Each structure stands twice: as C-alpha cells, then as structure tokens.
C-alpha cells in the first residue's frame, strides 16, 4: 500500500506542477516549474498522502464501484477542505484537481497491481 501511495504522490506532484506552470505567467518556465514542484509536492506529501491513507481506511470494507466512489468523494472532500483552509478561492480548484489526480493514480495502480498478482498465480496441471 505504501508503494502505491508513493507512486501516486510522485505522479500527482509532477502533474500538479505542470498544471500550475501552465497557469502561471511569471518568473520563467523552468523556475516556475521548480517552485511549483517543490510547493505542490510538499503539500501533497503532508496533506494528500495522509488523506489518501484515511480514505483507504474508511473504504476497506467496501468493494467495487462503491469503494471507488466513496474513495473519490473522500479525496475530493479533503482536497476541497484543504483548499478552503489554506488557499484563496482561485487555488481551491487546483487542490481539488490534485486530489482527483491522486485518486485516479491510486486507482490505476491498484487495478494494475491486482491484475498483475492474479496473473502470477501458478496454474497446476494434472497429469
């Protein structure tokens, strides 16, 4: 589970930095990307990863689409809450988008790992 969260953190940090760089018109592209990568990665690590762990904890007894939907709403709720508490109105959308990217990455990695493990189960043939 922690590997999945680390992968989600890295991908979300990079994609959020790209989005912030595209929205920002100052400094220069490389400097803006570096600053947004540092800033967004720090916030995602401190706020996004724990909220994703809480989402996994709250949805551990659910399966299928119900678990995915509940996890999405928990991720978006925490993103909206953190955006409302920490940022101004125009940056709330960025936190919600980052929360969605983190949820999507986590679900894709969860799906890929689940099917990889299922395909690795040895098949015993009778002779």
UniProtKB/TrEMBL annotation:
Residues passing through the membrane, by range: 7-27, 33-54, 66-85, 91-109
Taxonomic path: Bacteria, Bacillati, Bacillota, Bacilli, Bacillales
UniProt keyword annotations, A-Z: Membrane, Transmembrane, Transmembrane helix
Species name: Aquisalibacillus elongatus
Identification of the protein by name: DUF3021 family protein
């Amino acid at each position: 589970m922690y590997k999945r969260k680390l992968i989600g953190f890295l991908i979300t940090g990079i994609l959020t930095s790209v989005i912030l760089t595209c929205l920002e018109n100052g400094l220069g592209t490389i400097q803006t990307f570096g600053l947004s990568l540092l800033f967004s990665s720090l916030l995602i690590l401190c706020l996004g990863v724990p909220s994703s762990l809480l989402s996994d904890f709250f949805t551990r007894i659910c399966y299928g689409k119900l678990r995915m939907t509940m996890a999405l709403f928990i991720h978006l709720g925490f993103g909206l809450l953190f955006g409302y508490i920490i940022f101004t109105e125009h940056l709330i959308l960025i936190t919600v988008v980052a929360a969605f990217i983190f949820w999507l990455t986590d679900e894709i990695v969860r799906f890929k790992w689940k099917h990889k493990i299922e395909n690795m189960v040895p098949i015993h043939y009778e002779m």
